Each structure stands twice: as structure tokens, then as C-alpha cells.
Amino acid sequence: MLIKLKRTRTHSEDRNLAIWLATAAGMLNAIALGAFGFFPSHMTGNTSQLSNELSNVDLRNMLFLGTTLLAFVGGAITARIAVISGLANGNRIIFCQVLLIEGFALVALSLFELFYYSPGNNREIIVLLGFLMGLHNSTSTQLSSGRVRSTHITGTLTDAGIALASLFAAMIRRDHSKEVVAQRKQFLTHIITILSFLLGGVAGLMLFNRFGFMAMCAIGALIICLSLASMITTVVRVNRIASPL
Question: How sure is the predictor about 38, in pLDDT bands with cuts at 50, 70 and 90?
Fold first, then answer.
């Protein structure tokens, strides 16, 4: 699920990726809303808000929103550079390592908020979360070759609509080709991504209301465990293949 293999990636692997990473993204988004009243991954809304601040000439909010957008893009760029470098050096677990760093960063942020929370730090924390969400989305997008965008639900809804329209057209034409089968599988992947993000958002808000920033810490720990499990499994398999019987 978290490894880029030479063979063609299966839809089952993409769906598992969507379930884990889109759910985590939805939870983080909801926790940020509960804690700060702000969505760190909602770049469409943030860009629209930035336009509004430009018209109102609110320099402080303009700087904050602009920095948040740049942080998200910066996270995506960082993940891309890490992946390019890792794959160029034959590092098969580079995606796991990127997510591992994200997990530790989330744990560190949540612990900081648990012990040193101050409303004066909210904007800085949101910017850092924006960076991590960009990192998160870029990792899932690259790993799935663009089929799973864990935070970009607007794009996923658009892709799901396109896939559904293609399926309807194929039904009218009575087309049963392999391409239609692939579109049907991809449509299911989009639906799973959307539902995972939605359910993650509901769960994240409920957990934050109950446990506060410990909920964010738990998500970071989950991402760490997921990454480590995939890394260990990959290393064991490679060593087993390489070792003589």
C-alpha cells in the first residue's frame, strides 16, 4: 500500500491507501476546525478568503492566508523532492519515511499544544498543519499516480463525476471493454476516498471534543505505526528474497 513497485498498482492498494490516509486527513481537518476554527487543507476556500482580504486590504489576514497557501504548496514540494531523491537512489520505502516524519511532526505539535497552548500561537500552528497537509496529500497523490488525493476532495468529487458520466455513457453504448471496467474500479476508489474523508471528519471532531489535542497525537501515532509496519514488512520481504534457501 505504501510502496512504489515496478508492477502496475492495483485498485485494491489504492483503496486501502484512501481508507487510511483520507480518513487521517479528514480527522486532522476536523480537529483543526474544532481547535482553531480553520481548515488547514481547504485551499480553495482559503484562496477565496484571501481574495476577500485583498479587497478589504486587511494586511494581517492577507499575510496569514498567503503563508498558509504557501505552506501547503511547500509541503507538496518537499514531498515531491524527497520522493524523486529516494526513488533515484533505489529507496523503495521513501513514501513510508515521508509519512513517518509527518507522524512525528503531528505528535510534536499536539504535545506542544497540550502543554503550551496559547491562542496567540494558533496561526503559526495552522501554518504548520497546512505544510503537513500538503506533504500528506502530495505523498498519497504520487504513490497512487494521481488516483488518490487524500485532502483534495473537490478534485476527487470532480473525478468521481467524470468517471460516473463515463460509466453511464458506456451503459448506453453497451460497451463492456476493459477501459469501462477500469473506470468502474476507479469510480469506486473515488467514492471510498470521499467517504473516508467524510467519516474521518466526523470522527475527528468527536474525538477532539472528547480528548482535545490527544486526538491529534493519536493520529500522528497511527501514521507512525502504519509507516513503520510497512517499512518493516518491506525490509523483511526483501531480505527473505535476497537470502539463499
Answer: confident
pTM exceeds 0.85: yes
User: CA-CA distance, 34 to 5, in Å (whole number)?
Assistant: 38
Give the HSE-up count for residue 175: Cα atoms under 13 Å, Cβ half-sphere. 15
Q: Give CA–CA dist 128/130, Å, rounded.
A: 5
- C-alpha atoms less than 13 angstroms from C-alpha of 233 in its C-beta half-sphere: 10
Task: Give the pLDDT score at 238.
Answer: 72
| pLDDT reported for residue 6 | 62
80 half-sphere exposure, CB direction, 13 A CA radius:
12
pLDDT digits (tens, 9 = 90+) for 61-76: 788 888 888 999 999 9
Fold of 11-233: Growth Hormone; Chain: A; (1.20.1250)
Dihedral through CA 76, CA 22, CA 145, CA 3, nearest 10? 90
Cα 87 from Cα 81, distance rounded (Å)? 10
Query: Could you tell me what percentage of the chain is helix, strand and coil, using 3-state DSSP and rounding each to the nearest 5?
Result: 80, 0, 20
Cell triple for residue 132? 503537513
DSSP string, 87-120: HHTT-TTHHHHHHHHHHHHHHHHHHHHHHH--GG
